[in-house]
Write a structure and sequence with these properties.
540 residues; alpha/beta; 2 domains; five-stranded mixed β-sheet; three-stranded antiparallel β-sheet; 9% strand
Length: 540
């Protein structure tokens, strides 16, 4: 009975950690506008599809790949969600928040199998309070939420297969890892890193469960999960690998600093939210929740870094106190993390953003959990209270950073990537009748496609005007575009431009052709900053 009570207490505590993750996520999930990459998956839901590859089935086209390395799994998941609940911000973000909740619970189950209840609860609590794991899941522009869910599910099933051999567990685990590859081919970093680490750290165990039949089941199940990706790379031979495997080692130090900033939670400050120096009209707290958030931020000294980076160093020092399977599990996690990071670090245009580095999670929490749990057993009766205190301190430090993000989002609003003016733009464009709507900058088109459910006649507005030199075909295209009075153009104001000067270049070209810009409306964010301009061209 005592053992049963203890197990139930651990599970209730793990469920409480999952609830904490959901509650903190709910507090931030509607604070920012929709970022362009966050809305990218809608290109595989609403026609006209703007995807890299569709498969023709009868008279229908099934979108399989959004980009050469990004599949449409998320788009297929969201088809029924959007059909039932529309395309609002909660319908878009809450499902990924729930996927994050599930991944926290799966991590608890995995750690419980690997290292026992004590380590499982410690790791689960740390992951639930990790600010960047939460934020990258809620705002899922990476995307990363399904990556974590699928890889953790696959790991849990495969470890279950090792403990209790079952071809069903083996097949399901490999199938989910294959799905992760279709979802985002960059899953190869984690799958490859963990696979190689397993072979190095547990060679006898791997050999002991390997048979020709099991290898066949693993390969076929993985291939079934990754089948859309495989079909695409057959139709366009090795397109995923040809387009994404160039190497670049010029910024290893910068990528290392980014990884450290991801660990301490500071990496997205100033990228998600505007800072005080960028905001002329900061919002004062409104309501009990915002007031409490502001008071906590002030009392804590506006913390921008958690203690996890320091805790990681301490976990490494304490790791030798672990013995046997626990020590090997720590070595596995460290080696898998190093191998996965090394791949992203030497890949061109990868590893330098949080949505790449966060893919290593929750391997750091595995190291923390097993190391601190092993150390706590060395001090016997005082071990559990000491471990609880350490866990509480680390969780509070993470939650304080999350609160700081929320406080700054409310006070200063989102940056150009995350401006809430996108909602007002979407509402305004519902009342605009246009033959074509040209998006004259990056960061507009995907969100508008999502909000309009594909009904807005969107066109790319940066080409060909961004070319260094225009040929006759370019000039003819621009002449048709500018001269049509039913065409409408959307651009960012100067302070919010991504492609600096592209709108001015178009306006000047039109002026030289005898047309002037007629502004229909200027769309501001909730802080009064003008973000978008909607206009048409008329004869001078």
């Amino acid at each position: 009975m005592n053992r049963l009570t203890r197990i139930l207490n651990f599970r209730f505590s793990a469920l409480a950690a999952c609830l904490l993750f959901f509650v903190t996520g709910s507090a931030v999930v509607s604070q920012l506008g929709v970022q362009n990459d966050e809305a990218l998956f809608a290109d595989g839901i609403f026609k006209p599809y703007a995807v890299a590859y569709t498969l023709k089935v009868g008279h229908s086209q099934l979108p399989l790949m959004l980009m050469s390395y990004l599949g449409t799994l998320k788009a297929w998941v969201y088809r029924p969600i959007f059909r039932l609940w529309g395309t609002g911000v909660l319908a878009m973000r809450v499902p990924m928040l729930l996927a994050g909740v599930a991944s926290v619970w799966l991590f608890y189950l995995l750690l419980r199998r690997v290292a026992g209840e004590r380590a499982a609860l410690f790791g689960c609590g740390l992951l639930a309070a990790d600010s960047l794991y939460l934020l990258t899941t809620c705002f899922d522009w990476g995307p990363v939420a399904l990556q974590h869910l699928l890889i953790l599910s696959g790991m849990l099933l495969l470890f279950g297969f090792y403990q209790h051999p079952s071809h069903i567990r083996l097949a399901c685990g490999c199938f989910l890892l294959g799905l992760a590859m279709w979802d985002k081919a960059l899953a190869v970093w984690m799958i490859g890193g963990m696979g190689l680490a397993l072979i190095i750290v547990f060679p006898k165990q791997i050999v002991g469960v390997t048979t020709l039949r099991r290898v066949a089941i693993s390969v076929l199940s993985f291939a079934l999960g990754a089948l859309p990706l495989i079909i695409y790379n057959i139709e366009d031979p090795l397109a995923t690998f040809r387009g994404n495997t160039s190497w670049d080692t010029s910024d290893l130090a910068g990528k290392g600093r980014l990884l450290a900033a991801t660990a301490d939670g500071s990496a997205l400050l100033g990228w998600l939210n505007n800072e005080d120096w960028q905001t002329r009209n900061p919002h004062l707290p409104h309501g009990a929740l915002e007031s409490a958030s502001a008071k906590i931020s002030a009392l804590a000294g506006h913390p921008r870094h958690s203690l996890l980076l320091y805790a990681f160093g301490l976990a490494l020092l304490l790791a030798p106190l672990a013995r046997g399977p626990a020590l090997r599990a720590i070595v596995f996690a460290l080696l898998a993390m190093a191998l996965a990071w090394a791949q992203m670090a030497v890949t061109a245009n990868a590893g330098g953003s949080v949505h790449h580095s966060i893919l290593l999670w929750p391997l750091p929490q595995m190291v923390f959990a097993i190391s601190f749990a092993a150390a706590s057993r060395r001090v016997r009766a005082a071990g559990i209270p000491a471990l609880a205190v350490v866990l509480a301190v680390l969780m509070v430090s993470g939650l304080l950073v999350t609160n700081e993000y929320r406080f700054l989002m409310v006070r200063n609003g989102g940056t150009q990537n995350w401006t809430d003016a996108i909602f007002r733009l979407g509402d305004y464009m519902k009342g605009v009748s246009a033959r074509n709507v040209f998006c004259v900058d990056w960061g507009i088109m995907n969100s508008m496609h999502l909000f309009s459910r594909g009904k807005m006649p969107l066109r790319e507005g940066t080409n060909p005007i961004t070319k260094p030199a225009l040929d006759d075909a370019d000039r003819q295209y621009l002449a048709r575009t500018i001269s049509e009075p039913a065409n409408v153009f959307i651009n960012h104001t100067k302070d919010f431009e991504f492609f600096t000067g592209v709108n001015d270049k178009l306006v000047k070209y039109a002026a030289d052709a005898g047309y002037r810009r007629e502004v229909m409306d200027v769309i501001a964010d909730n802080h009064g900053r003008p973000v978008y301009e909607v206009y048409r061209f008329v004869v001078q």
